[in-house]
Each structure stands twice: as structure tokens, then as C-alpha cells.
């Protein structure tokens, strides 16, 4: 975390990021629903074209079970910056031959943190 002295509220910003990581590890979309605001979008370039998925569309990409190569995959939170009720975070995901850089915008809502939006870059 890049905040110099994170408070307990700032450390809580990690909770939705960990839920997001559990979603990838298990393939269970319930973890994504716990991590994201209902109106969140996931955006990036897929097969050379811009994509923008709603949370429901993103969750539909996950089969409810781990990927066959899950034991070889890894996910690391690279940085988190908290600015009052807004935070940004970056994460690196190593999934098989692909590496993803995820960039998150998070909001503190009703005393907890949720991901408002995610953009990603796929390195093949």
C-alpha cells in the first residue's frame, strides 16, 4: 500500500481486492458481486476491440469452478492509494501464458470499500 501510514479504514480497502482475487481463484462470480458496486464496469481491449462489460456480463464469464491451471496462476496487489473516500489500486495477474495488469477505482460506501470500475491490459 502506498499510503505512508494506512489507517484501519484505509487497510479495509484491501477487502474488495481480496474478494476479487478469490473470484478468479475459484471461478465463483459471487466473489465479484461482493467486490464490485452493482453498476460497475470492466473495460479493456479483447481480441483487438474495446470491451465494456457490466458486472452481470463480467460474472457470466466465470463458470463457477477454478480454471484447470489454477495451481499455476498468481495474483499480486502492486499498489493502493487512498484519497479520502476514493482509492486506486493496481494488480498483476499471471494466468497461464497471459499476464494482466488490472487498474481499479474504488469508493468508500456506507463505511466499506467497493470497486467502482476496473480497466485491464492483457500482455500475451
How far apart are the first and last residues' alpha carbons, in Å? 27 Å
- Classify the oligomer: single chain
- Spans of at least 5 consecutive residues with low confidence: 1-5
> Which strand order does the major sheet show?
2-1-6-5-4-3
The overall strand count is: 6
Tell me the number of helical segments per DSSP (H or I, 4 or more residues long): 4
**How much helix, percentage-wise, in residues?**
10-25%
Mind summarizing the main beta sheet?
6 strands, mixed
Taken as a percent bin, the fraction of beta residues is over 45%
Which structural class should the secondary elements be placed in? alpha+beta
The helix/strand order is: HHHEEHEEEE
| Overall 3D shape | globular
Task: Summarize model confidence as the mean pLDDT.
Answer: 93
Radius of gyration: 14 Å
Care to describe what's here?
The structure is a single chain. With 124 residues, the chain is an alpha+beta fold. It is 23% helix and 49% strand. The protein contains four helices and six strands. It has a six-stranded mixed sheet. The longest helix is centred in the first third of the chain and has 13 residues. The two termini are 27 Å apart. The N terminus is likely disordered.
Keywords:
six-stranded mixed beta sheet, 6 strands, single chain, 124 residues, alpha+beta, globular
In summary, what is this structure?
The chain is an alpha+beta fold.
Task: Give the SSE layout.
Layout: H1 8-11, H2 14-26, H3 29-35, E1 36-46, E2 49-54, H4 55-59, E3 74-83, E4 86-95, E5 98-109, E6 112-123
Parallel strand pairs: 1-6
Antiparallel strand pairs: 1-2, 3-4, 4-5, 5-6
Helix pairs in contact: 2-3
Amino acid at each position: 500500500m502506498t499510503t505512508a501510514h494506512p489507517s484501519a479504514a484505509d487497510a479495509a480497502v484491501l477487502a474488495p481486492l481480496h474478494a476479487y482475487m478469490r473470484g478468479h481463484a475459484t471461478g465463483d462470480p459471487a466473489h465479484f458481486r461482493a467486490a464490485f458496486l452493482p453498476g460497475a464496469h470492466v473495460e479493456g481491449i479483447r481480441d483487438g476491440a474495446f470491451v465494456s462489460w457490466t458486472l452481470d456480463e463480467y460474472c457470466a464469464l466465470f463458470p463457477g469452478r477454478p480454471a484447470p491451471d489454477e495451481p499455476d496462476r498468481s495474483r499480486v496487489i502492486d499498489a493502493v492509494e487512498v484519497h479520502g473516500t476514493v482509492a486506486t489500486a493496481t494488480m498483476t495477474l499471471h494466468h497461464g501464458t497471459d499476464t494482466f495488469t488490472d487498474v481499479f477505482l474504488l469508493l468508500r460506501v456506507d463505511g466499506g470499500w467497493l470497486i467502482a470500475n476496473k480497466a485491464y491490459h492483457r500482455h500475451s
